[in-house]
Specification:
Elements lengths: L1 E7 L2 E7 L14 H8 L9 E6 L7 E7 L4 E2 L3 H15 L9 E3 L2 E7 L5 E4 L23 E6 L2 E9 L3 E6 L8 H9 L9 E9 L2 E8 L3 E3 L3 H13 L6 E6 L2 E7 L6 E5 L2 E7 L4 H6 L18 H4 L4 H4 L13 H11 L4 H19 L9
Parallel strand pairs: 2-3, 4-6, 11-12, 13-15
Antiparallel strand pairs: 1-2, 1-18, 3-4, 4-5, 6-7, 7-8, 8-17, 9-10, 10-11, 12-13, 13-14, 15-16, 16-17
Bound molecules: (2S,6S)-2,6-diamino-2-methylheptanedioic acid.
(2S,6S)-2,6-diamino-2-methylheptanedioic acid binds next to α2 and α4.
Length: about 375
Amino acid sequence: MEFSKYQGLGNDFLLFDLRRARLTGDGLAAEPDLARRLCHRRFGVGADGVILALPSQGPAELRMRIFNADGSEAEMCGNGIRCLARFLADRDGDGPGRSWEVETAAGLILPELLADGGVRVDMGSPFLEPDTVPTQLPMGPAGLPQGELDVMGQTWGVAAAGMGNPHAVVPVPDVAALDLEALGSALEVHPMFPARANVHLVQVLSPTHLVMRVWERGAGPTLACGTGACATLVACHLLGLSERQARLDLPGGPLLISWDEQSGHVLMEGPAEPVFHGVLAEPLASELAALFSTPASPDLPPPSPPSQEELGPIDCATACAQGCQRPQACPSAEARAKVAALLEGRSLDDLVRLANDSLESRLLGRRPGEGGPGA
Ligand code: ZDP
């Protein structure tokens, strides 16, 4: 079971290429303890999260799933998707300009490899309605959920935004002066955030330059959070604190974030670097491999499609409306085979005579009192 470790601004991930594998059941989501053990920095490999590259379920090229160090699954991951793009490019030998459509629980996300090795990502539109974040904070005058929350005996002005995953943004005069551990851990599980929250303290240096500290849901204090930087820029712009485009300095380094006025999409640009490639030892390797029906070895052919018996009978009316999908499983195949046999070996004249005869007998059958079916 091979894996690679990548990091984006010090936010680090274990990546597994399972694009040719098939999930049995719900994979890692059903085994939160496995993600915890992989991410543990002393008993495991060590990372902020585990990222799986999986076959897409729709038209996208692939699907990404991300698990936090505490085993919980996140909908999206900004630094992680940059790492995923570099990982795929490194494995497949792709260069600058290559882009991918990635299916995530936050919708289709589009990373693109840049000439300098960095990655630009179209992160889609932010979620600003309270129940889409999700948060219990009410819609505020700035056009996003806002409120005052009491934590640690103090009142904090908090704004919320979603990038598929939930974020709480707290503008403060000096990020360095605050106890991130205490504030972050309390706001992460605040009842106003029913799915918990990633917590960001942000200080405005200028309208195009912000500095932030990050407390990640399920991971604690991390060096960077891509989705968090996007949510923070959106919140700061709506609150009148920043332009639509700014540099956000995170503990691990800067990200460039812009909120495109026309498309409404947030664009993120930043680095992603390989750290090492490894092979999991037992028992972790077998435990992870057991979650997939095919190991992730690139040398193996893709999994064979399920057999007709496994698939069961087909519903032609819905499944085959655009043409026969599975002739072997077609319930009308027998009837169609009889017609084919009938047509074969008969001349056109025979067929015309057959049609006329049967038409005549049907017409006769309908005349009252002259016999035929039902008379
Ligand atoms: O939403 C969450 O539970 C996050 N901890 C997921 C990871 C977000 C991340 N830091 C990012 O860059 O967006 C990886």
